[in-house]
Design brief:
Number of helices: 4
Number of strands: 0
Distance between the termini: 28 Å
Strand content: under 5%
Protein name: Addiction module protein
Number of domains: 1
InterPro entries: CHP02574_addiction_mod
Structural class: mainly alpha
Shape: flat
Length: about 70
């Protein structure tokens, strides 16, 4: 499927981020396997969240804070 990079570059930042997120979600896990250190880190963070779930943020709240801080 052909695309025009220059047209994509003209998209508003929010649309660019949506496109990047959609593309990233489509990347096959086999292309980017996690190493042992990354798996350990993710496991530790999940354990921390399970111990104190009230300290975490909902995804929508996290995105709102990033948007407020960085403007996108």
């Amino acid at each position: 499927m052909p695309y025009n990079k220059e047209e994509l570059f003209k998209l508003p930042v929010e649309e660019k981020l949506e496109l990047v997120e959609a593309l990233w979600d489509k990347i096959d896990d086999e292309l980017m396997p996690l190493n042992d250190e990354e798996i350990k880190f993710a496991s530790e963070r999940l354990d921390m969240h399970k111990q104190n779930p009230e300290e975490g943020l909902e995804w929508s709240e996290f995105k709102r804070k990033i948007k407020e801080k960085y403007g996108f």
